[in-house]
Amino acid sequence: ADWSLVFWTLCSVILPVLITLWCSFQRSRRQVLIRDIFRKSKHDWHYTDLFGQPSYCCVCAQHILQGAFCNCCGLRVSEGCLKKADQLFLCKEIMMRSNGGAHSSMPHHWIRGNVPLCSCCMICKQQCGTQPKLCDYRCVWCQYTVHDECMMDRLKTEECTFGEFRDLIIPPYYLSTINQMRKDKRTNYEKVVPYCRKHWMPVIVLANTRSGNNMGETLLGEFKILLVFDLSKIAPAKALQLCTLLPCNAVRVLVCGGDGTVGWVLDAIDEMKIKGQERYIPQVAILPLGTGNDLSNTLGWGAGYAGEVPVEQILGNVMEADGIKLDRWKVQVTNKGYYNLRKPKVFTMNNYFSIGPDALMALNFHAHREKTPSLFSSRIINKAVYFFYGTKDCLVQECKDLNKKVELELDGERIELPSLEGIIVLNIGYWGGGCRLWEGMGDEPYPLARHDDGLLEVVGVHGSFHCAQIQVKLANPVRLGQAHTVRLILKSSKMPMQVDGEPWAQGPCTVTITHKTHALMLYHSGEQTDDDASS
């Protein structure tokens, strides 16, 4: 009886352990196989534990809750059918060879099932995808949908017109033709406009999947009708080389990310200028996914995107946007000291430079985010942390008596500073996540501020509480003046500084801000949402 008790006790302990180990082994083996398929496939497969809408496997036609989907063509498949789907179905081709060159026609690329909600059949004009099964077809290029019973042989070979946004799409035959022309050392690309389009403005989407609430990952699939680059996998400088294959002064780039991502792309465009590719420089639109999004707000693209606006409306806004110029500034920080042999730090500024409480808040925020990055995946949480550090600075006042520690010169003229805790140098209208700092309450006369006039606006603040009052329009900033060149001398102690949200602690130094270049941006002049207006 004792041995029997020992045996069954061991079984009750060892058996669950063995089952757990076996399940872990099978799971890891399955994940290795899936990663191997993803790596070798021409599809842009992504695995998900839960689809956002009712989905059916394109191979076995069974209802699935989890599985893989292709961000490029929209295929959805169960885990068990993944390898078979990869062999059966072709993905959307970015480059296709054709005897007719860039003016060739191409048939529809139909994908069966999982059509968008509320889509209508191009033949009978009735709603598609209403049956709870794998049904109906969708073209991955023009996005037209058609019922199973309406699908005819002629539709399978019919020419695809690329749909409503044909003027934004780069046809695969065009890129193939241009690539061949480059090999033949022919450069008259302007003559190869696809389908004789008069108003062709190809759009390239650059998405930062790490920005904001991970919306960038979702947008990769939403913009699948266009050419999309994931900036976590490819640098913007490399992606923008595609502009040299497209007509001069026609390309538009939609940057999905925060102000930091936009600055990254604009730096890559400056590199194109250095290479002598100035005539291929694109105009830049913004889909704001970051926390502050002040540059996006200034250019009319809103304070933040959370999926509330349909992709079709965003593309329409990009088509209708007006081209403008944005001043870009060189910020040079030269350390003081007799034995200082280090080169000056050089930054490029699009939004603003500051020294004082707002730079201290940004510095504390970045230090906290580097320690626990998983906590900072929400725009609301980010702003709450900023609020916490701002409240803390109201009590501690680490930046008090700044006017005794710095000297300020505007266009070579020294400015007598009142009692201040912070100085902010503005290039754009918005600051601090939606505050029009230079205007303040709007009850005092002040010179007009623009982002393309070669002038900087310089203001002072009395502390974090004063910044909060300005943001809710209960106070005005201390307007110190406008200038083409700003020089700031930090005489003693270490102070927090920031350029476009990138903070650091700086010892005694001289900061010189001069005009660098212009960036070609797109301004959305349409009516903004109530949320943007209230910001």
From TrEMBL:
Enzyme Commission number(s) of this protein: 2.7.1.107
InterPro entries recorded: ATP-NAD_kinase_N (IPR017438), C1-like_sf (IPR046349), DGK (IPR037607), Diacylglycerol_kin_accessory (IPR000756), Diacylglycerol_kinase_cat_dom (IPR001206), NAD/diacylglycerol_kinase_sf (IPR016064), PKC_DAG/PE (IPR002219)
Any one Gene Ontology cellular component term annotated for this protein: cytoplasm
PROSITE patterns to which the protein is assigned, alphabetical: DAGK (PS50146), ZF_DAG_PE_1 (PS00479), ZF_DAG_PE_2 (PS50081)
Subcellular location: Cytoplasm; Membrane
Keywords for the protein's UniProt record, in alphabetical order: ATP-binding, Cytoplasm, Kinase, Lipid metabolism, Membrane, Metal-binding, Nucleotide-binding, Repeat, Transferase, Transmembrane, Transmembrane helix, Zinc, Zinc-finger
Residue ranges of every copy of the Phorbol-ester/DAG-type domain listed in the record: 42-91, 107-160
Pfam name, any one: DAGK_cat
Topology versus the membrane: Single-pass membrane protein
Keyword Membrane: yes
Pathway where it operates: Lipid metabolism; glycerolipid metabolism; Glycerolipid metabolism
Enzyme class label: transferase
Reaction catalysed by this enzyme: 1,2-di-(5Z,8Z,11Z,14Z)-eicosatetraenoyl-sn-glycerol + ATP = 1,2-di-(5Z,8Z,11Z,14Z)-eicosatetraenoyl-sn-glycero-3-phosphate + ADP + H(+); 1,2-di-(9Z,12Z-octadecadienoyl)-sn-glycerol + ATP = 1,2-di-(9Z,12Z-octadecadienoyl)-sn-glycero-3-phosphate + ADP + H(+); 1-octadecanoyl-2-(9Z,12Z)-octadecadienoyl-sn-glycerol + ATP = 1-octadecanoyl-2-(9Z,12Z-octadecadienoyl)-sn-glycero-3-phosphate + ADP + H(+); 1-hexadecanoyl-2-(5Z,8Z,11Z,14Z-eicosatetraenoyl)-sn-glycerol + ATP = 1-hexadecanoyl-2-(5Z,8Z,11Z,14Z-eicosatetraenoyl)-sn-glycero-3-phosphate + ADP + H(+)
Domain DAGKc: 198-335
General function of this protein: Membrane-bound diacylglycerol kinase that converts diacylglycerol/DAG into phosphatidic acid/phosphatidate/PA and regulates the respective levels of these two bioactive lipids. Thereby, acts as a central switch between the signaling pathways activated by these second messengers with different cellular targets and opposite effects in numerous biological processes. Also plays an important role in the biosynthesis of complex lipids.
Family per record: Belongs to the eukaryotic diacylglycerol kinase family.
Descriptive protein name: Diacylglycerol kinase
